[in-house]
Specification:
The chain is α+β, with helices and mostly antiparallel strands. Strands 1, 2, 3, 4, 5, 8 and 10 form a 7-stranded mixed β-sheet that branches. The mean pLDDT is 93. The chain has 7 helices and 10 strands. α1 runs antiparallel to α2.
Length: 223
């Protein structure tokens, strides 16, 4: 994809290549540092995910502006547990999606995501679950997953989980797959840093040191 920014700069979205890996991981680290926890782990998740069988290389995309990578998104295979009779049904998710802090709140994240969703739809990907801020993701067509009777594995089934979102990329996908209710579990690969803390710390030590802060809005923050 080629387009122009509001200031006339060239914007190009393409697949990530091996030569981009370190730059993209550093971008992801900068984008998520101290956002959801002191420091972040999203860059390590990405580092490990590229060899994960759930990783979807065709949807591993970077956004460039004037030959500089300013954004990145990756997608993953996932699954829905639809009960004993229906069993487990393949589904999909995405993230992390990263925009460099210097370019946030300028529409680039939504531009990258909308491009990626169109590409996913063209590939036959019919349904996405994800965790995020509905105030942003509603602009890309996402709504509360509970409205579709899709439950989050870590919350009660009758809970309206404000951060658990979903979208049918292909209208009628749930009905066509016989899904009237299901439970979503995030792919195991997203928990790699928590499961391998020593490996994560060794990886994090290869980056320039940054201060980890406990801030309001982070998971588990208490006054």
């Amino acid at each position: 994809m080629n387009t122009k920014s509001a200031h006339g700069s060239a914007i190009f979205i393409r697949k990530e290549t091996p030569k981009d890996y370190r730059e993209v991981e550093n971008l992801t680290r900068e984008a998520f540092w101290n956002v959801y926890r002191p420091g972040c782990t999203e860059h390590y998740v990405l580092n490990q995910y590229r060899t994960n069988p759930d990783f979807i290389p065709e949807l591993d995309l970077v956004m460039e502006m004037d030959d500089k990578i300013i954004g990145h998104v990756m997608f993953s295979k996932a699954s829905l547990c639809a009960g004993a009779e229906a069993g487990t049904i393949p589904s999909w998710t995405f993230g992390p999606i990263s925009i460099h802090p210097d370019y946030k709140r300028k529409g680039y994240g939504l531009m990258l995501l909308q491009y990626a969703l169109e590409k996913a739809r063209a590939m036959g990907i019919g349904f996405l679950c994800m965790e995020g801020n509905i105030d942003f993701y509603r602009h890309a067509g996402f709504g509360l997953a509970s409205k579709l009777n899709i439950h989050y594995h870590a919350e009660p089934k009758d809970a309206e989980v404000p951060y658990f979102l979903a979208q049918e990329l292909i209208p009628g996908w749930l009905q066509n797959n016989g899904i009237t209710e299901a439970t979503y579990c995030p792919p195991k690969g997203y928990f790699v840093a928590d499961e391998n803390p020593e490996a994560y710390e060794a990886y994090e030590a290869t980056f320039p040191q940054k201060v980890k802060l406990r801030l309001p809005g982070q998971l588990g923050y208490e006054e």
